[in-house]
């Protein structure tokens, strides 16, 4: 005689094996695009190197990418100084000739058959590293970096960036470092690490068609909506100067 338990156990094992096998087979999920990486809204780059505007997105199927420049379609393939990375929307701009023409507002679009995702609008600004007189201060003392942007009208939006190329980041403000209403940057006490980077004051005007010419340290800067100059801090510690 064949016992019932002998038949049931193999059947249960087969059922369990099929269930586990089903769990190991990923179900293909259709997904509209989502932007997962992009350059900052105020994107300042060094024109002497490759200018990179980042745009990464995920989706299923994998999205295709396109760009707008100043609100109009930007044909990347027709520009010999610009390339788009494979399976990505990131732009590499090799502006050996006339880099100023790439100062503009950019927006990345990632799309597939289920929808589209838009990056925020990225304003590309060239950083001109002018020669300026260094600010010399002893470690531990307070310091004020003056901005003195053009008054307008309209009143500009002022912010500070720290530059240690190839990257440029907003100055982190805290209880020790803060920006005043006038745009000046205040250090309650200077640390040695404050001298590692350069500091740039930026003033952006609300109207893109507003052109202004500003004279700073003997050089002229002309841009549609930006005013920028650099500052270098030298920290003095025990008669040793470090930049």
Automatic annotation (TrEMBL):
One Pfam family, short name: Ig_3
PROSITE patterns documented for this protein: IG_LIKE
Domain of life: Eukaryota
UniProt GO BP: axon guidance; brain development
SUPFAM superfamilies for this protein: Immunoglobulin
UniProt keywords, alphabetically: Disulfide bond, Repeat, Signal
Residue intervals of the Ig-like domain: 33-119, 120-213
Record has Disulfide bond as a keyword: yes
Molecular functions per Gene Ontology: cell-cell adhesion mediator activity
InterPro entries: Ig-like_dom, Ig-like_dom_sf, Ig-like_fold, Ig_sub
Extent of the signal sequence: 1-22
Any one cellular-component term (Gene Ontology): plasma membrane
Keyword Signal: yes
Protein name, entry field: Ig-like domain-containing protein
Source species of the chain: Oreochromis aureus
Lineage: Eukaryota, Metazoa, Chordata, Craniata, Vertebrata
Gene: NFASC
């Amino acid at each position: 005689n064949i016992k019932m338990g002998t038949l049931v156990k193999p059947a249960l094992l087969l059922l369990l094996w099929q269930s586990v096998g089903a769990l190991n087979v990923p179900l293909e999920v259709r997904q509209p695009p989502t932007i997962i990486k992009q350059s900052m809204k105020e994107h300042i780059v060094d024109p002497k190197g490759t200018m990179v505007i980042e745009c990464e997105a995920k989706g299923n199927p994998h999205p295709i990418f396109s760009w707008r420049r100043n609100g109009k379609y930007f044909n990347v393939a027709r520009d010999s100084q610009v390339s788009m990375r494979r399976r990505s929307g990131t732009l590499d701009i090799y502006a050996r000739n006339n880099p100023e023409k790439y100062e503009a507002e950019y927006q990345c679009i990632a799309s597939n058959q289920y929808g589209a995702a838009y990056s925020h609008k990225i304003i590309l600004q060239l950083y001109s590293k002018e020669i300026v007189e260094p600010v010399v201060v002893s470690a531990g003392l307070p310091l004020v970096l003056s901005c003195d942007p053009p008054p307008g009208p309209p009143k500009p939006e002022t912010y500070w960036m720290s530059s240690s190329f190839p990257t440029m980041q907003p100055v982190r403000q805290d209880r020790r470092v803060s920006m005043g209403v006038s745009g000046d940057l205040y250090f309650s006490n200077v640390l040695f690490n404050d001298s590692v980077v350069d500091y740039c004051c930026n003033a952006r005007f609300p109207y893109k068609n507003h052109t202004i010419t500003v004279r700073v340290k003997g050089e002229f800067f002309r841009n549609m909506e930006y005013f920028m100059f650099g500052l270098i801090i030298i920290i003095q510690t025990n008669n040793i100067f470090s930049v």
